[in-house]
Amino acid sequence: MNKTASEALYKTALNYFPGGVNSPVRAFKAVEGSPLFIKKGDGAYIWDEDGNKFIDFCCSFGPLILGHNHPKVYEKIVGALQNGTSYGAPTKLENELAELIISRNPFIDKIRFVSSGTEAVMSGIRLARGYTRKNKIIKFDGCYHGHVDSLLVKAGSGLATFGESSSAGVPAKVAEDTIVIPLNDLESLKACFEQHRDDLACAIIEPIPANNGLLLQEKSYLQALRDLCTEHGVLLFFDEVISGFRVAFSGAAELYGITPDIVSYGKIIGGGLPVGAYGARAEIMQKVSPDGPVYQAGTLSGNPVAMSAGIAQLSICSQQGFYEDQEARTKVFVDAINAHAKKNAYEFEIVMVGSIFWLAFSNMPAIRRADEINNDMTPFKNLHKALLERGIYLGPSGYEVGFVSHVHSKEILAQAAEQFCMAMDEVF
């Protein structure tokens, strides 16, 4: 594969950006070679600056559920641009997107648009503390919630401990208000609620943990978390930046039938443009400024171009049978690859939920915790290279998940599955 242009661009980028990139995983440090510089995307495909064409399963890490450059989204974006890019004032487009979401989502009464998933989580945490007048929060090892100071923490010693900073620049005092618990450990969860019941504002979890592998939790565990929160007066915060509008229109909350108190969503509601949102029932959202004392603001919140793209994308996602079709096509794709791996006794399985999938190099029947993932990513590194050479693009880390979009047709997925199997034969 020719990478001359990408390699030259990366060499230049190293002069401008830390590590040559504007988001760490893009640097290809976890895989072989230097990053590909993407020139364009259309449908299920992307092209790099050297003209190499790939079937794209990264989909901008999830938000492009309709694929690249979808005509309906493109049309809405262009229409909005003809009127300007930003006003710092309300527009009716915000009302339209909010109505589209809230009218189909039984878990939230009001919503606040922001500019990213990280900002949505940060604001939701502040709201939880402001509403409950409590300080401590529970997070789960293996769940990622953006680069919020209080959530960039790792577990200390013991099963349920105060967090320790996992990033320079996060004060110990900030991390100490976050209690980190392993996933899929009900006893630690119960002990934590009992010990800290008087000062717990919320428990935040990815109901479908998909930023550190795909650590699917049993519904019974999530329901136990819901019950403990209810019993102890703690808010349950579902971070659905990945799962929201991806596994179902109302996300994992709808898929599992479990009601959160606060929910955050990410860029999928903007057709890939920078946007995020958080929402809750009216009683909680009334605490947000200007109605209440919890301050949060943003000049680009409710940006008209992003709102227009979101209206176009979510209108299609809301159509009957959309998510059933997504899951069905993904399952055929995944089953074909898994059957080949099983036939050849490869220590490999693709795990999936909805149209999200993850490459697990393990013989375990189910990986539900971060510490169960094999930290030797050499097999993924080798497979990633073999897939690139065969025109298949995945996120450049073995901890990242893949995504199937609406325009990954049965034919495209069959072709991709064939290339996957050939790549596995080479690697194993």
Textual characterization of the structure:
By secondary structure, the chain is α/β, with parallel strands linked by helices. It has helices at 4-13, 71-81, 92-102, 117-132, 172-175, 186-196, 219-232, 251-256, 282-285, 304-317, 322-343, 378-389, 410-427; strands at 38-42, 45-48, 53-56, 110-114, 136-141, 153-154, 161-162, 164-165, 178-182, 200-205, 235-239, 262-265, 276-280, 349-353, 356-360, 392-393, 402-403. The protein has two domains: 4-69 and 320-427, Aspartate Aminotransferase, domain 1, CATH 3.90.1150; 71-317, Type I PLP-dependent aspartate aminotransferase-like (Major domain) (Aspartate Aminotransferase, domain 2, 3-Layer(aba) Sandwich), CATH 3.40.640. The chain has 13 helices and 17 strands. It has an eight-stranded mixed β-sheet with strand order 4-13-12-11-10-5-9-7, with helices on both faces. It has a four-stranded mixed β-sheet with strand order 1-2-3-16. Strand 10, helix 7 and strand 11 form a beta-alpha-beta unit. The radius of gyration is 21 Å and the shape is globular. The model is unreliable at 156-161 (pLDDT under 50).
Number of strands: 17
Number of domains: 2
Strand order in the sheet with the most strands: 4-13-12-11-10-5-9-7
The gyration radius over C-alpha positions equals: 21 Å
Q: Which architecture of the largest domain per CATH?
A: 3-Layer(aba) Sandwich
Taken from the alpha-carbon principal axes, the silhouette is: globular
Distance between the termini: 21 Å
Classified in CATH, the superfamily of the largest domain is: Type I PLP-dependent aspartate aminotransferase-like (Major domain)
Task: Please count the helical segments.
Answer: 13
Percent range of helical residues: 25-40%
